[in-house]
Design goal:
Helices cover 72% and strands 1% of the residues. By secondary structure, it is mainly alpha-helical. It has one domain: A middle domain of Talin 1 (Up-down Bundle). A two-stranded antiparallel sheet has the order 1-2. One of its GO terms (cellular component) is plasma membrane. The chain crosses the membrane at residues 12-31, 37-57, 69-93, 105-126, 138-159, 171-189, 229-246, 266-288, 300-321, 327-348, 355-373.
Amino acid sequence: MARTRDLQLLGTPVWAIALPFVGVIMLIITWGRDLNAVLIVLGAAALVGGIVTAVHHAEVIAHRVGEPFGALILAIAVTVIEVGLIVTLMISGGEKAASLPRETVFSAVMITCNLIIGLCLLVGPIKHWTVRFSAQGTTGAFAVLAALVSLSLVLPAVTTSAPGPTYTGPQLAFAGAVSLVLYGVFVFVQTVRHRDYFLPVEVLQEADSPQESRGEHDHDPPPSNRTTLLSLGLLLVCLVAVVGLAKSESPALEGGLTAAGAPHGVVGVAIALIVLAPETTAAVRAALRNRLQTSMNLALGSAMASIGLTIPVIAVASIWLPTPLELGLSSADIDLFAITVAVGILTLTQGKATVLQGVVHLAVFASYLFIAFNP
């Protein structure tokens, strides 16, 4: 993938302009049709291309606006994809789709808090020995995330006003409103009141080890207004193409999972993995440059946006959706979330990490993935 500096020297790459429109063309060809093997493969390739291109254009915009606004832009872009996928699949999925929002949102939380953070805390220390980040920013973000998950996904499993793992109408409205308020306050703190808590941390000269290296920092000038506006427009085209192609490809995905004997809940895991691919790529690249705070902003920001924005939108959409929302987690998922919270607290309060913390987070994610396929 071309780096931002390439934009200053060579202009926007041809592939970054072409792939969004290739995705739209494939969307037009595949929409509403029963796909044969060739169209499934071509549609999947266009979907991956759209995701990669979305990463590129979001990074261009992020470089222009700077941190932490850049991470926020990418998180919101990913949430738009997620909400679009959930709503479209729930409309066409029948009763089996009642638990899709829970499965997708919880998968996004586990992916961001364990897979993305785990990868970043693995590749960063492998290259830079010990990595540093702002404990004030990451612990504050993680506290908001824990509250959002507990309110939106844990409480519905234990409330008694409605049968099953569901909220009543007033309970769902309250959860949606509080989620939106929590996310809004976090964005205000992140971008205005305590923005310095979320800026990349400079590695101190007095390193803990002589092998600990300084971070690589991009000193390139930001892209021009013209380049930024072009990337913004192409990012929107990418989002439309990705959501539409994922909808077209979903029958093939569900069919493949059914043929493999996988539980229906794995669809939510697959959706979350697809929509979070941009975040994963960007976060790992930042970790390789020894900018762990940027990685943390991307991971935790995406998880919070996935709940703080998705749950309110789904709560409103539930008025028209054909099935009730089953938001309550199973006991196994609640246990995995409790482990994630405990591990996250021990990792994020230190302000620095080694490969050990990365391996622990990845082990928790592997456990979640195993339980998802073998409940």
